[in-house]
Amino acid sequence: MEGWPALIPGGKRLARSLAVLGLVASSAGCILTKDLPDPALDIPEGYKAARLSKAADAPPTLDWWRGFRSRELTGLMEEAQTVNLDIAAATARFRQADAQARIAGAALLPTLSATGQETYSRTSRSSTSGLTIGGREVVNYSASLSASYELDFWGKNRDAAQAAEETSVATRFDRDVIALTTLTTVANAYFQVLAAQDRIRTAQRNIASAERILNAIKERLTAGTGTDLDVAQQESVVANQRALVPPLRQTLDQNINALATLVSRPPEAVRVTGGSLNQIAAPRVTPGLPSELLTQRPDIRRQEAQLASATANVGSARAQFFPSIQLTGQGGYQSSALSSLFQPQAAFFSLVGSLTQPIFDGGRILGNFEFTKARQDELLQTYRKTVVQAFADVDTALTSIRQTTERLRLQRQVVAASRRAFELSEQQLRAGTADIVTVLNTQQTLFQAEDLLWQAQLARLLAIVSLYQALGGGWEPRMERPVDAL
What we know:
Radius of gyration: 38 Å
Mean pLDDT: 85
Membrane topology: Lipid-anchor
Strand order of the largest sheet: 1-2-3-4
CATH topology of the largest domain: Outer membrane efflux proteins (OEP)
GO molecular function: efflux transmembrane transporter activity
Low-confidence stretches: 1-29, 52-56
Keywords: Coiled coil, Lipoprotein, Membrane, Palmitate, Transmembrane, Transmembrane beta strand
CATH superfamily of the largest domain: Outer membrane efflux proteins (OEP)
Organism: Bradyrhizobium valentinum
Shape: elongated
CATH architecture of the largest domain: Up-down Bundle
Family: Belongs to the outer membrane factor (OMF) (TC 1.B.17) family.
Helix content: 55-70%
Distance between the termini: 24 Å
Structural class: alpha+beta
Number of helices: 11
């Protein structure tokens, strides 16, 4: 049907009308200044817990986990990025949001439909008086195009489309939030596996030490310099150390199973070699400036996009108070003979313009407008809280790193002193000069100190991971827009 408006009387006038509609549509729709919210953010000049932060400090790299220098951790991270089911579901959600944005943007364009029809009718051969008359058969052919367009003079459709686009942007940032959470969870679970393995090895070594002391005490009992009480007390120490192993193995299995879930594999198909926390490097993380956090964290960008969507919805809701202008047009060909269907004399067309002004709707439009305003205010407060919480998260993580580092340093001193005390008490025990109470105390102190040392190392690594997460985890601040709704 290409070129059919030119064959219809007044077709050029219709084409000009559609062109005007396009110009109006391209310029219509804007958000009023009074609809734009003021976040009133109080951005500090620096983090309270950061002592040496400089403006030139670089944010974490995109592959921040490589700073721990663990090939196995890097492999798990890369695998999680490609097969994690939460990330896949989030990706599907932003594709849904893209489709919704295209649906909302469709109102900005005219609708066009084509119709082809053949009508066959035959009149009766008898009349109501009972007299027989000749019947008549009629065949009609028609082909037409119908177009409809709403003038978006007040920006209702434009704002609705913009709201849908911003929602789609928000779902992209939501995917990045989920990806960041997934990666930090992988790192935390992996370090938990290493810590459990270290603590199990330490517990088994302590069991061997306790059994060695038990044998020495039994030798003293045989020689007549020990008592049954001494033996019973040491047997209690051995039993207590053995009882610590099952919970540690349970923790190990739980974290391996958690890693299996994160990489979308059954636990039977996951083998974590692990190793020791001593093989993990502790990278230095620079926080940069608080103002940079507004673009570094995907959760802040997500809330920002959701607020922008709500603001556009306010404009769309306000526009519903004003008249809507609808233009419809139809044109085509109609003939009783198929051979003459597309002749100029068979052409027809119609163009109708209508205006609808809401007068009384029981408060529906007003209620919708008040709802969108309240929704905008809710998202504004949520955005402000997200920013404030982000600053607190970074300060908390920085404090945690500093304190866990100090705790680790002090705990190493505790272990060194406890080990020396235990070695001396064991030497005195074998020499027959040590008090059994002293031996019991020194070995229990050492066993506890060694276990706490691994926990201190784990706490420091988890604090570093939490700082990566608080800073956005190396997430690349990009404005990935959805597919154009138009």
